[in-house]
Give the backbone structure.
Amino acid sequence: MKRTDFVYVNTPEPHRGRTRAILKAHPEVRQLIGKNPLSFWVILGLVGLLVGLAALLAEASWWWIIGVAYCVGAFADHALFVMIHECAHRLIFKSQSANRLAGMLANLPQIFPSSISFEKYHIKHHSFQGNHDLDADLPNHWEAKLINNYFVGKAIWFLFYPIFQAFRVSRLKEIKPFDGWTAANWAAQIAFTAAVWYFLGPKAVAFLTLSFFFSVGLHPLGGRWIQEHYLTHNEEQETFSYYGPLNTVAFNVGYHNEHHDFPSVPWNKLPELKQQALPFYDSLKSHNSWTALWLRFLFSRELSLFSRIVRKNRNAVKLTDESKPDIELLKRPATEMA
């Protein structure tokens, strides 16, 4: 059946309740909470890889540029998104400023400034999952209606996914879109892109730009955006994990239920979290192939951007006497405790 609206519910988001249940049944998972400073070296390696490829392809034919961007650059760029995500949750360094600077470094080859803005909107996504006025991960109503449930519309949506995301900013009234950190992010991107253009030429910039769009759009990696919160199995489970082989090059970003339950656990310990709390996660539906899911979403008339759960309650964390012990154990960043 063709959906004409989102799925509206009055229930709270599922993660805080499961977090408390897991902490009660498996208190040992607290030991997984912490930082992973080695992620900074991953950032340096990926940035070096993309800049090196841009230099190698500076005089190459367009077929080589497009092919390498799709087959290699997209995966490296996507991995940098995961590192920016780690920085947003302060999972690399103790200092918020150090994490933001690391995120800005990871952002450089992606051409478009996004790391600081992503932090603002992503933390709200965790705090207010499914609230249309606060969760930028939800499509706009006009966006879902425009794309409809046809292959062509979905393909266009994947190809221009970052642009559609940018249009969501205007509806999120409680977020300050621009500040000093955002200005610094923009300045760094402009300086980096200008330097690449000057020293390596326009084809190098084109390679980095194509890698960026492929990494988040019309590419099997795009299955990740459908995997996380789209209703691909039923209308009761709104968050799904992916346990397929691409987690190896995507730094376990597929462990999405685990991440939402414990956002202070770094990427390298998410598989261990799943194993320690296996009864909780084995009972949930999951995905094993981003490619199969991506193709299914593209061609299925039953799946559309309306295949999302929306709630009107704010899901705010209330620091009552009963919840304080759980909140302390999770050690979530203050910005996540809206």
